[in-house]
Amino acid sequence: xxxxxxxxxxxxxxxxxxxxxxxxxxxxxxxxxxxxxxxxxxxxxxxxxxxxxxxxxxxxxxxxxxxxxxxxxxxxxxxxxxxxxxxxxxxxxxxxxxxxxxxxxxxxxxxxxxxxxxxxxxxxxxxxxxxxxxxxxxxxxxxxxxxxxxxxxxxxxxxxxxxxxxxxxxxxxxxxxxxxxxxxxxxxxxxxxxxxxxxxxxxxxxxxxxxxxxxxxxxxxxxxxxxxxxxxxxxxxxxxxxxxxxxxxxxxxxxxxxxxxxxxxxxxxxxxxxxxxxxxxxxxxxxxxxxxxxxxxxxxxxxxxxxxxxxxxxxxxxxxxxxxxxxxxxxxxxxxxxxxxxxxxxxxxxxxxxxxxxxxxxxxxxxxxxxxxxxxxxxxxxxxxxxxxxxxxxxxxxxxxxxxxxxxxxxxxxxxxxxxxxxxxxxxxxxxxxxxxxxxxxxxxxxxxxxxxxxxxxxxxxxxxxxxxxxxxxxxxxxxxxxxxxxxxxxxxxxxxxxxxxxxxxxxxxxxxxxxxxxxxxxxxxxxxxxxxxxxxxxxxxxxxxxxxxxxxxxxxxxxxxxxxxxxxxxxxxxxxxxxxxxxxxxxxxxxxxxxxxxxxxxxxxxxxxxxxxxxxxxxxxxxxxxxxxxxxxxxxxxxxxxxxxxxxxxxxxxxxxxxxxx
Length: 663
Description:
Number of domains: 3
Binding site for heme: 67, 107, 156, 353, 357, 364
Distance between the termini: 59 Å
InterPro entries: Catalase (IPR018028), Catalase_AS (IPR024708), Catalase_clade2 (IPR024712), Catalase_clade2_helical (IPR043156), Catalase_core (IPR011614), Catalase_haem_BS (IPR002226), Catalase_immune_responsive (IPR010582), Catalase_large_C (IPR041399)
Shape: globular
Oligomer: single chain
Enzyme class: oxidoreductase
CATH topology of the largest domain: Catalase HpII,  Chain A, domain 1
CATH superfamily of the largest domain: Catalase core domain
Radius of gyration: 27 Å
Function: Decomposes hydrogen peroxide into water and oxygen; serves to protect cells from the toxic effects of hydrogen peroxide.
CATH class of the largest domain: Mainly Beta
Strand content: 15-25%
CATH architecture of the largest domain: Beta Barrel
Largest sheet: 10 strands, antiparallel
Structural class: alpha+beta
Number of strands: 20
Number of helices: 16
Pfam families: Catalase, Catalase-rel, Catalase_C
């Protein structure tokens, strides 16, 4: 009887969402859930937008204590060194002279998965950098993809709710291959460009060390004379870019779910310090309307061929964290943490982020004093009249905690701009209070088409396979059909091939992509692959008859990371064999060299499986003598005899022109 009473009490809290009008939590009916309240079509978001603040606040506080997004991450310390005096474009002090060094802390992450998810899922990767400058904290909070799914921050809770595990069964984890995500995409076609990047090899990077980073939003640089530039930020890995293939990424998720964090940690410990060059794209205010896209639209790139990159400096990650929780988990980033010389624009996604990040930290880190945690603390002194609250560490003395005051000689006092005080760029803002978006944001397919025509045939094939996989997991046929019709706006052949693969009708007649003739080769990974052998990890199969000393010396000269693999652990002469065919797997390596055979049929079969997977994932294979590998592979691309040949093949990267590969 008591159980039935409790059941009745619970039922009154169940909500049937079908056919219900949208309201605030106070019951006020909503006329527009697509646009933040702005001052004019391209103006800043207004703080009086109670609907946006309520929606975003609720979203920011959904998870305790795990991050709502970017929960799965890893991090490292390092140094940023400016290449030159860049005061002509910004008065930011950390960029003010050649050789100036600034401590940094970088956190890499996936977006959709929980803390316990795998590293190699198909997802956007976070690339957030905290600069501990002499003027205070500067956070460059970005991703490994230069665009985003949505144009206005008010829709951020929606896209994340859509991609997260579905609420009725909490499935699937860390994946976009399900109905709610693709239903969102079908009904929010501004996501078309981002989806092309998401389905490309960018979403399955080989490592954080071979991954680009982007600030995504449009910011401003301001120099000491008050002259401004629109700016986009880029991190370029010195090693070059490299990705996984999809079959490999899935297998790694099972064999080593910590693959990316292990790779970063191990390489820093070994002295293979990851390096990234900070580059910017700059446009003068008078160039704001010179392009066929809106500079403030976060779903658009500035093609590097039209707006070239300028190198500012280099970041080197040279120290692992001492305590994962205290540093990696407690670090708090915020795009609103800026220094003089860096300012904001009316980018509607950025405007919302400036509210959301602090709001999130309040619940995740327990209150307003998260800036006092060691990993977040500024290296320069900070003084103000803020007091008390959860987690307060500063012990303020004296009677005064207000401004202005006479009892303490008006301390702390304001600082004029000429003495380093922060002054916002004075932009004229004029417009009606509206919920709408400028027509200049309405083109959702031109850059998606440009991305497609800029790729190599191999990269396009990977997108077809990725879209077929993702939509093949969608149960609702109507959603599959909507997506096929949607992407006919990018390429009819793409949409038609995917339609055949997933069992829906070809795209509707009359849907044609934009007439884009000029590609942007800079978006293609295969046209700028990571060359060379430095820090690449290879598996070397040996036994007690192998020339292990010569192999170790040759590969060490190439700055490669070598793991010897055999039928059992132990020592072969002076070399410890830490891995066997049972503890290792070919997906964990960049290449395979075979210098051994085994009498045991089971061990021989395990070796053949190593060779097969390495071949299927297009990686370099080397061997000492031809009988050591299957005869069908001997004359295949990326397969060669001898150490020097193997080194050359490894340096080239993947070999996608193989006859039988099924990766």
